[in-house]
Specification:
The protein has 319 residues and is an alpha/beta fold. It has 11 helices and 11 strands. It has 2 domains: 182 residues, Rossmann fold; 114 residues, Rossmann fold, CATH 3.40.50. It is elongated. The protein binds 6-O-phosphono-beta-D-fructofuranose. Homotetramer.
């Protein structure tokens, strides 16, 4: 193996650049060459591929987004499209590939693996919704951004004695919501993995107001409903001075946290090591602070298991 291709695919996540840097520099350290593929699988098809070296990967560890750009490209599910991608890899003499993205991206990586190019998947998404890894690259950064926003909201909530329903990202996973709820001492948290009762939320708010706590933050995962919809449901139960806030794509950007930079660096280096051992078709994860691998195929049947202890703590410490 001489040349490794790297791409970022799906929604961007802080820390993707750190992973690109790690793959590039580790490859060079081992006497290999790295090739950046712009715009994920769409760029692969278009042959938007360039030699990426240590210099290009300088000063990017602290930058959010991805210098390789990203795209969602469902067309890659079609075999003729895959074969065109394979032609491009051959044209550039690329023998193996590292794909940084969510589980949609792993489908594409696996197809390349089936076509004879060893492929490694790194979990890059703010949602933390990939099975067999405790953390995905980008989750910690997005979480910190959400918590910072909630700290700001609490200031104004307290000044005006308001209740904020704050919607955070996560797609169908409640990870950002429940971790942010603990870290921002939210008064309640609503996630897709757990049923909720609006009457109960309202009763808690009332009893807390009666005890003198006149402002509140309710963290809502986007997979449940929108902040505005939830506020509408709560409105008939009392005068809570409701405001609905959606943090939105702010969570996707910004300088990655040290945790995400280190995670991405460890995973990127490990991916190159595994490729050098001739391995492919693997998804890299971290479990109990140890790097692990699972067959990408197994990921498609598995379900992400959120750490429900965090939810329990969020609930128990609220009010
Ligand atoms: O998967 C990352 C994510 O930010 C989700 O949290 C969110 O639901 C979705 O992507 C938003 O997608 P888009 O950037 O295409 O609007």
């Amino acid at each position: 193996m001489k040349r490794i291709g790297i791409m970022t695919s799906g929604g961007d996540a802080p820390g993707m650049n750190a992973a690109v840097r790690a793959v590039t520099r580790k490859a060079e350290h081992e006497g290999l060459e790295a090739y950046g593929i712009n715009y994920g699988f769409a760029g692969l098809l278009a042959g938007d591929i360039f030699r990426i070296d240590s210099r290009t990967a300088d000063d990017i560890i602290n930058r959010g987004g991805t210098i390789l750009y990203s795209a969602r490209f469902p067309e890659f599910a079609q075999e003729p499209v895959q074969l065109k991608g394979v032609e491009q890899l051959k044209k550039f003499g690329i023998d193996a590939i590292v794909v940084i993205g969510g589980d949609g991206s792993y489908h594409g990586a696996l197809r390349l693996n089936e076509h004879g190019f060893n492929a490694m998947g790194l979990p890059g998404t703010i949602d933390n919704d990939i099975p067999y890894t405790d953390f995905t690259i980008g989750f910690d950064s997005a979480l910190n951004t959400a918590v910072h926003a909630m700290d700001n909201l609490r200031d104004t909530a307290a000044s005006h004695e308001r209740t904020f329903v704050v919607e955070v990202m996560g797609r169908n996973a409640g990870d950002i919501a429940m971790w942010a709820a603990v870290a921002s001492a939210a008064e309640d948290v609503i996630i897709p993995e757990k049923d909720f009762d609006v009457a109960e939320v309202a009763a808690k708010l009332k009893s807390s107001r009666a005890r003198g706590q006149k402002h509140a933050i309710i963290v809502l995962a986007e997979g449940v409903m929108t902040a505005a919809e939830f506020a509408d449901k709560l409105k008939p139960y009392g005068d809570f001075q409701l405001r609905a806030t959606t943090i939105g794509h702010v969570q996707r950007g910004g300088s990655p946290t040290a945790f995400d930079r280190v995670l991405a660096s460890r995973m990127g280096s490990y991916a190159v090591e595994l490729l050098m051992e001739g391995k492919g078709g693997l998804a890299i994860g971290i479990q109990n602070n140890k790097l692990v691998t699972h067959n990408m195929l197994d990921l498609f049947d598995a379900k992400h298991e959120p750490e429900m202890d965090v939810y329990k703590v969020a609930k128990e410490l609220a009010f």
